[in-house]
């Protein structure tokens, strides 16, 4: 593993990859620091650029955008009590309290140092766990992959939104969208309505651009313009964070990183939930719980460690099994595939140097983020003041052109627009989007694995039960379904 | 609109989609029928399964409305539809007027709907169109479609 990591460093330590990572960090910080612009939106509209780059340049760019956007959400959370990304919601509680008390610099610096430390630790966890899991997953056959996909879909469906029925509807629509095109085994056309363009299926990236970028613009149109909030940014002469203050919260950072990483590994649960779990546990175990909610540096550290610890964890199901855990990794999965890199255990065998190069860039980007973050918190006032309404036309332009650029096809522009309309309508109607996106992305793999399983089997569906690992997974799925049904029954009875 | 009515309409729409897919299977998947659900080797198996999941979800949504009276649904604002119309207008304009004019139409419409300040809008538009030209056309060498309308030679496309 160490040798592979050294090779990985050799792959990415070139000017183009490092510049791409730097550009990604800058873009991610700007996006994350502006409330209303999400990490998913940034990765979605920037991913078409990467199709024209080599993988060792394009993928580091997107990974850097993801990483920086999750961190930078803390900047407006602290300065104007408005999280830049949902993952920074817990940071706003104590961060803004500190800022209003004239301690914005300490809060912003604690957020940065905790984020970088957590991300670094979680990246080491990613390297160790992903490598091991990939070697285990190589032993997985089609029946095991079918059960993995089903577990992922069930998990995502159960945590996305309050209505399992709407989650099922959303996932079913995702499976239908993925069915359009050619049957993977026989090559027969399915639901192309005689259109040659549709024989290649619905392009995922333009659809994701619509769902996450254009839909956000349409949602913004529904909201009233926010009142300009008081910006509690760094004032001249303000005291910096002391080393002793940081060292005092390192146990909290370690614990929160572990929680965030563990949560990130589970499909369907991302940084948005990790930050709250970390914050809640830190408060319970704190020696000064009364400070939480009124300006606790430990609270800021816990929330930020949790959400940044989740980012590397999020990459594990996507890279090892090809199962995106949330919407950001769903877009990343699309970007990987556009680069000819099919996520899964074989990715670690066929493209080991590249994979370890991506791990190396996550480490290098952390160091860069430390430097960039110190600059960003100095100009926090400027970044958070950029009105979203001024950026929305830019988002629309880049989204439409990006969608076109994927295949140089006007159809993809219309797919993006349709995705935008669908994304807005789904949000208004409370239909969760993640089950649809993830079902769409795992459907080809699921269908292939299902039909391969039956080709391998001599007695039909029994293969899913007779193979030991698959049998255990079937038991997990059955138990999960029973638990969900019981919970729904009890809710109805209450 | 009452929430229960809206939720029921969602369920009906979902059920319609699922039913439509099942009815279209014989026409859209050569040689297949709805009975393909019993044959996992059939190319129609997966779409039929997906349609059944959609129907199940839709049924669940409708059945969930049989419980106690829920509160009224929030009215759908109209400005997002105007934003969508602006983007659709821009997309429609692209084949006729070229990519830059199409983007300008979409951006103008979004700017009006979101009430972007004129100076901010002018800056954003200039930056956007320049970025599109420099990044996509010049650097990435993306070939944009030529406008179909007869336009003067100086028209950017």
Overall number of domains of chain A? 1
Oligomer: heterodimer
Q: State the order of secondary-structure elements of chain A, H for helix, E for strand.
A: HHHHHHHHHEEHHHHHHHHHHHHHH
N- to C-terminal separation of chain B? 45 Å
Short description:
By secondary structure, chain A is mainly α. Chain A has 23 helices and two strands.
What does this structure look like?
Chain A is an all-alpha fold. Chain A has helices at 2-12, 15-33, 39-50, 55-72, 74-80, 89-100, 104-137, 142-159, 164-179, 204-222, 243-248, 250-265, 271-285, 297-321, 327-338, 345-350, 352-378, 380-384, 388-407, 410-429, 434-456, 463-466, 468-493; strands at 181-182, 189-190. Chain A has 23 helices and two strands. A two-stranded antiparallel ribbon of chain A has the order 1-2. In chain A, a hairpin with a 6-residue loop joins β1 and β2. With 157 residues, chain B is mostly helical. Chain B folds into two domains: 3-64; 79-139, no CATH class. Chain B is built from five helices and no strands. Chain B has helices spanning 3-28, 45-64, 79-97, 99-113, 118-139. Chain B is flat and about 60 Å long. Chains A and B meet through α9, β2, α10, α19 and α20 of A and α1, α2, α3, α4 and α5 of B.
What descriptors fit this protein?
A: 494 residues, two-stranded antiparallel sheet, globular, B: 157 residues, mainly alpha, 5 helices
Give the SSE map.
The complex is a heterodimer of chains A (494) and B (157).
Chain A: H1 2-12, H2 15-33, H3 39-50, H4 55-72, H5 74-80, H6 89-100, H7 104-137, H8 142-159, H9 164-179, E1 181-182, E2 189-190, H10 204-222, H11 243-248, H12 250-265, H13 271-285, H14 297-321, H15 327-338, H16 345-350, H17 352-378, H18 380-384, H19 388-407, H20 410-429, H21 434-456, H22 463-466, H23 468-493
Antiparallel strand pairs in A: 1-2
Helix pairs in contact in A: 1-17, 2-4, 2-17, 3-4, 3-10, 3-15, 3-19, 4-14, 4-15, 4-17, 5-6, 5-7, 6-7, 6-14, 7-12, 7-14, 7-17, 8-21, 8-23, 9-21, 10-19, 10-20, 12-13, 12-14, 13-14, 14-15, 15-21, 19-20
Chain B: H1 3-28, H2 45-64, H3 79-97, H4 99-113, H5 118-139
